[in-house]
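Supplementary Methods. Inverse-folding protocol.

Structures were first reduced to a discrete structure-token string of length 215. This string, shown here, constituted the complete conditioning input.
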């Protein structure tokens, strides 16, 4: 789960200010932050969904890697053997290279489009349920404002740990939306995940080709 395959920037005014009382000012509401992207990926449902996507696109990712290796090998052949090849052989290899590059680009774009569509479906499904929980939590706990907590998408120079609601909302989401335990055989050779580490954004299945100039 490293190119970001979804974009979900949310800015919520999640709670309603208390009704004004005659002669009094409304009490100040609390402010919180929520990294919505990390929260979605950290839920049990999110981990399972993106893990399933990774498995679904494994074969297409491998096919793209194989195509890229074939292109690189042909580029190397043209570069190293350029002077030894006849003009006819050079033209044939260049046509072959162009065909492979065209096929690779088409397969790459198709895979990216399909992966993005599947990823967006997961994000929208989980995000809609998470937003409802955040709205409920904010009103019950006196929050006047809950902001996006990812500094890469919203410039925040300091956030006190006490107002970061990401882990709390992940817990509440998992309680409201339990996921069946995975019964598959665990990979005992894999090292345990580091504590308090959020899962990364699902990776795109598309390798980036290395461009080389034609001889």
């Amino acid at each position: 789960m490293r190119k970001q395959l979804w974009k979900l920037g949310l800015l919520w005014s999640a709670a309603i200010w208390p009704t004004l009382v005659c002669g009094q000012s409304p009490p100040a509401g609390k402010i919180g932050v929520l990294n919505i992207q990390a929260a979605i990926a950290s839920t049990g449902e999110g981990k399972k969904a993106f893990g399933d996507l990774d498995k679904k696109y494994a074969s297409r990712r491998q096919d793209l890697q194989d195509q890229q290796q074939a292109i690189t090998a042909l580029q190397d052949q043209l570069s190293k053997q350029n002077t030894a090849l006849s003009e006819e052989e050079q033209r044939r290899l260049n046509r072959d290279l162009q065909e492979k590059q065209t096929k690779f680009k088409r397969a790459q774009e198709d895979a990216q489009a399909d992966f993005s569509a599947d990823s967006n479906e997961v994000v929208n499904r989980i995000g809609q349920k998470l937003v409802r929980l955040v709205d409920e939590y904010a009103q019950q706990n006196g929050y006047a404002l809950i902001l996006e907590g990812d500094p890469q998408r919203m410039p925040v120079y300091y956030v006190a740990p006490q107002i970061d609601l990401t882990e709390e909302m992940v817990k509440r989401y998992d309680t409201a939306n339990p996921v069946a335990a995975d019964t598959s055989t665990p990979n005992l050779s894999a090292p345990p995940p580091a504590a308090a580490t959020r899962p990364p954004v699902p990776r795109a299945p598309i390798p980036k080709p290395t461009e080389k100039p034609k001889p």
